[in-house]
C-alpha cells in the first residue's frame, strides 16, 4: 500500500513538472509570435513618431527666434534702400500726387497774358507740369490741389525750388479759360489763358502775327510771324532766316528780338502801331510794313512822275518817268544824270533815292511834302536842304 502511495505521488510530481515545462514552451512561443512582433514594431514606430513630432515642435519653437533674428537684420537693409535711391521714392510720391482727379480741368497748354516776355505752361495728364519761355525752362515739377475754404487752388511745385509763384485759380467765362495767381505784392497778378490756335494763343505776338514786307523794294524780303512766336524770312521764295521771337516792353514800346536756329540775333525790331504799322529795327536801318514793297514802290513812283524845278537855280531840272527812270537836264536840254529812282518806305513815308549812272546815290533820299507839291531832301549837313517844286 505504501509502495502504491509513493508511486502515485511520484507520478503526480512528474505530471506537474511536465505541465510547467509545457507552460514555459507556450510562453516562449507567444513572445516570439508575429503578432507580438507587429505590436512591438507599431509601438516603436509610435515612439519614433512621437520623437519626430517632439523634434518638430522643438524646431517650430526655435523658428520664431530665427525669424526674429532675420527681421532684426533686414531692417538695416531696407533702411539703406531709401538713402541710396531717392529718385525712385520721389517718382512714387509724384505718382500718388498725379492721381488727383481734380487736376484734369487744367490739363493742356497755357500762355501768359499781358506779359512782355512770352511764357508758357504745359500741364500733363499725369499731373506734371513745365513752365518755359522761348529759350529756357523756367520751372518743372508736379501740381497739387488745395480745396480749403471751398476754393480749388492749384500749386505748381518746382522739383528743385519749391512753389513756383502763388497758387493759381481756374476760371471759365463764356468759354474763355484762364488760370490766375493770387495777387502778390512783389510780382502782382500772373495769369495764363488756354492756348488755342483759333483764339490767338499768345497775346504777346498777336500784334505782329502775319506777313511783313520789307520797305526796301530792291531787297524785298518777307517775314512770316506766327502767333506762337516763331518766324521765317525769305526772298523770291528762298529761305534766308528762321527761328523764334522773344518780346520785351520798355518805355511804352514793345521790342521783338528775332533769333535764328543757331541762336544768333537776326534783328531786334521795335513795333510801331500807328496809322501805318511797322517793324523798325533798333538802328532804324531796316523796316517792314504790312503792305508789299512792290505795290508801295509803284504807288510811290506815280506820286513824283513829271517835271520838277529846282529852288536853287544852280541845280538842273528833274524829270521823272512813270517807269521809274529819271533825267537831270541842263539849261540846254542835255542830260547831266540819268538812271533809276529807288523807292523805299520808312515810318510810312516814301523815300526816293536817285541812283546815278554808276548806281551811286545822288545826295540823300528825297520825300514829298506840302500835299505833293514839294520834293525835298532829308536833313543833309553837308549840302543842306535841296528842294524842287512842280
TL;DR?
Helix content is 28%, strand content 38%. The chain has helices at residues 2-31, 34-84, 86-98, 203-206, 293-304, and strands at residues 108-112, 119-123, 128-133, 137-146, 153-158, 162-163, 168-173, 176-181, 191-194, 210-214, 222-225, 230-235, 238-250, 253-260, 265-272, 278-281, 287-289, 306-310, 317-320, 325-329, 335-346, 349-355, 361-369, 374-377, 387-389. The protein is elongated, with a radius of gyration of 53 Å.
Describe this structure in words.
There is one protein chain. By secondary structure, this protein is α+β, with helices and mostly antiparallel strands. Helix content is 28%, strand content 38%. It is built from 5 helices and 25 strands. The protein has helices spanning 2-31, 34-84, 86-98, 203-206, 293-304, and strands at 108-112, 119-123, 128-133, 137-146, 153-158, 162-163, 168-173, 176-181, 191-194, 210-214, 222-225, 230-235, 238-250, 253-260, 265-272, 278-281, 287-289, 306-310, 317-320, 325-329, 335-346, 349-355, 361-369, 374-377, 387-389. The strands form 3 sheets. Strands 6-5-4-3-2-1-9-8-7 form a 9-stranded antiparallel β-sheet. Strands 10-11-12-13-14-15-16-17 form an 8-stranded antiparallel beta barrel. Strand 15 and strand 16 (278-281) form a beta hairpin. The longest helix has 51 residues, at 34-84. The N and C termini lie far apart (204 Å). Residues 18-47 and 78-101 have low confidence and may be disordered.
Amino acid at each position: 500500500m505504501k509502495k502504491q502511495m509513493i508511486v502515485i505521488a511520484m507520478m503526480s510530481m512528474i505530471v506537474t513538472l511536465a505541465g510547467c515545462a509545457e507552460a514555459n514552451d507556450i510562453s516562449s512561443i507567444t513572445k516570439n509570435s508575429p503578432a507580438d512582433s507587429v505590436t512591438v514594431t507599431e509601438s516603436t514606430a509610435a515612439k519614433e513618431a512621437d520623437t519626430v513630432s517632439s523634434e518638430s515642435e522643438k524646431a517650430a519653437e526655435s523658428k520664431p527666434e530665427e525669424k526674429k533674428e532675420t527681421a532684426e537684420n533686414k531692417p538695416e537693409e531696407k533702411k539703406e534702400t531709401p538713402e541710396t535711391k531717392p529718385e525712385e521714392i520721389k517718382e512714387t510720391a509724384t505718382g500718388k500726387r498725379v492721381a488727383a482727379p481734380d487736376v484734369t480741368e487744367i490739363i493742356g497748354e497755357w500762355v501768359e497774358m499781358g506779359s512782355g516776355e512770352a511764357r508758357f505752361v504745359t500741364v500733363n495728364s499725369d499731373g506734371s507740369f513745365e513752365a518755359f519761355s522761348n529759350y529756357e525752362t523756367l520751372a518743372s515739377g508736379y501740381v497739387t490741389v488745395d480745396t480749403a475754404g471751398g476754393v480749388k487752388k492749384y500749386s505748381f511745385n518746382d522739383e528743385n525750388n519749391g512753389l513756383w509763384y502763388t497758387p493759381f485759380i481756374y476760371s471759365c467765362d463764356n468759354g474763355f479759360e484762364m488760370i490766375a495767381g493770387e495777387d502778390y505784392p512783389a510780382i502782382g497778378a500772373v495769369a495764363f489763358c488756354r492756348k488755342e490756335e483759333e483764339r490767338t494763343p499768345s497775346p504777346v505776338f498777336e500784334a505782329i502775327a502775319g506777313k511783313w514786307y520789307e520797305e526796301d523794294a530792291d531787297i524785298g524780303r518777307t517775314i512770316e510771324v506766327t502767333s506762337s512766336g516763331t518766324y521765317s524770312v525769305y526772298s523770291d521764295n528762298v529761305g534766308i532766316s528762321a527761328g523764334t521771337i522773344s518780346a520785351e516792353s520798355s518805355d511804352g514800346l514793345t521790342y521783338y528780338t528775332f533769333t535764328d536756329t543757331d541762336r544768333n540775333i537776326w534783328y531786334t525790331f521795335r513795333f510801331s502801331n500807328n496809322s501805318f504799322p511797322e517793324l523798325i529795327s533798333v538802328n532804324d536801318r531796316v523796316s517792314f510794313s504790312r503792305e508789299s514793297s512792290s505795290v508801295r514802290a509803284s504807288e510811290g513812283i506815280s506820286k513824283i512822275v513829271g517835271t520838277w524845278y529846282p529852288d536853287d537855280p544852280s541845280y538842273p531840272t528833274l524829270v521823272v518817268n512813270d517807269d521809274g527812270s529819271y533825267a537831270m537836264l541842263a539849261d540846254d536840254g542835255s542830260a547831266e544824270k540819268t538812271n533809276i529812282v529807288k523807292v523805299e518806305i520808312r515810318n510810312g513815308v516814301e523815300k526816293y533815292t536817285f541812283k546815278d549812272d554808276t548806281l551811286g546815290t545822288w545826295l540823300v533820299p528825297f520825300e514829298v511834302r506840302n500835299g505833293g507839291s514839294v520834293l525835298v531832301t532829308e536833313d543833309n549837313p553837308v549840302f543842306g536842304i535841296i528842294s524842287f517844286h512842280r
